[in-house]
């Protein structure tokens, strides 16, 4: 209470001195003096308002390494599994010593622990000589250290203050572990979810066809990586393809309502922002009608063999019993 009264006295003294200074310079009417005094009160209240300010934005380190997908060797971007990012905030004019902290990542609420807790997100609170909160240091470790926008919100004595801090990084695309196998006419969804900030303008898609009978040929797959062409949605072969934004970046998802054999081949997507770029590959195998007919014939043959074998076994068993 003493500090609150002291701040109020300082503000009132400032307002009175400013008013006398203005009056001594020019003759004003009472109405004009009241307006100037009101303006000074507003300015003073804003200057001393409860606030939190980020000291600076930080960057999330990434690296590139050579990896192999099927028979394709290429450079892929990733981030370290063990990371420790620090976001620093300055707190001004907290109305009381009791301050509640909440945190959101990309508008999604996340929990914040204390330094003694064994958690990946925790806050360090620093106080000034009067015991009021003056600084907050947010620690983001391991899987919680991601690029994006972190929003810190403070609540004290029914007053709220918030600020945003950005964690920038070059974009990172997923790594596909194995090819997708589908049947002609089936729906298919391919996602190139982007992790990175600032958000790329869009995701660029590329494709190289592969003959169905060479879908598993390593040399053909490797050669296809050098024959990739940008997908033209106006082409008749792509009339059933639909680009959409389902993971947060424009064109990050490619959907087929009824995929055709013309889409049997190698897909690739690429993204970039001001800090770097990344690419990834996906092999899609589309089995056509000939495969379906062959499979049906094979199934009938197998069922016939099973039936005959079962019949002969039963007949032999009956013969043995009769003897």
Automatic annotation (TrEMBL):
Residues 171-285 form the Ig-like domain. Keywords: Membrane, Transmembrane, Transmembrane helix. The chain crosses the membrane at residues 12-30. InterPro entries: Ig-like_dom (IPR007110), Ig-like_dom_sf (IPR036179), Ig-like_fold (IPR013783), Ig_sub (IPR003599), Ig_sub2 (IPR003598). It comes from the Eukaryota. PROSITE patterns: IG_LIKE. This is Ig-like domain-containing protein. It comes from Hymenolepis diminuta (Rat tapeworm). The lineage of its organism: Eukaryota, Metazoa, Spiralia, Lophotrochozoa, Platyhelminthes.
């Amino acid at each position: 209470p003493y500090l609150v009264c002291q701040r109020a006295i300082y503000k009132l003294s400032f307002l009175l001195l400013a008013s006398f200074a203005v009056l001594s310079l020019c003759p004003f009417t009472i109405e004009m003096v009241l307006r100037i005094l009101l303006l000074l009160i507003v300015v003073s209240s804003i200057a001393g308002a409860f606030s939190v300010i980020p000291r600076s934005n930080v960057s999330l380190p990434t690296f590139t390494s050579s990896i192999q997908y099927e028979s394709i060797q290429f450079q892929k971007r990733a981030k370290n599994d063990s990371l420790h990012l620090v976001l620093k905030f300055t707190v001004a004019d907290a109305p009381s010593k009791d301050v509640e902290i909440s945190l959101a990542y990309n508008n999604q609420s996340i929990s914040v622990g204390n330094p003694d807790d064994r958690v990946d997100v925790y806050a360090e609170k620093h106080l000034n000589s009067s015991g009021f909160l003056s600084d907050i240091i947010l620690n983001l470790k391991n899987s919680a250290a991601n690029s994006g926008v972190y929003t810190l919100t403070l609540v004290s004595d029914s007053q709220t203050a918030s600020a945003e801090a950005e964690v920038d990084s070059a974009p990172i695309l997923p790594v596909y572990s194995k090819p997708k196998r589908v049947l002609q006419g089936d729906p298919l969804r391919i996602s190139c979810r982007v992790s990175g900030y600032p958000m790329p303008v869009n995701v660029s898609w590329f494709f190289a066809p592969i003959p169905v009978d060479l879908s598993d040929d390593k040399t053909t797959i490797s050669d296809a990586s050098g024959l990739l062409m940008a997908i033209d949605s106006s082409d008749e072969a792509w009339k059933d393809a639909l680009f959409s934004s389902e993971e947060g970046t424009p064109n990050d998802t490619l959907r087929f309502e009824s995929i055709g054999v013309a889409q049997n081949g190698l897909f690739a997507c690429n993204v970039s922002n001001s800090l770097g770029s990344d690419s990834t590959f996906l092999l899609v195998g589309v089995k056509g009608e000939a495969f379906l007919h062959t499979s049906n014939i094979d199934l009938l043959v197998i069922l016939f063999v099973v039936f005959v074998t079962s019949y002969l076994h039963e007949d032999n068993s009956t013969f043995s019993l009769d003897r």
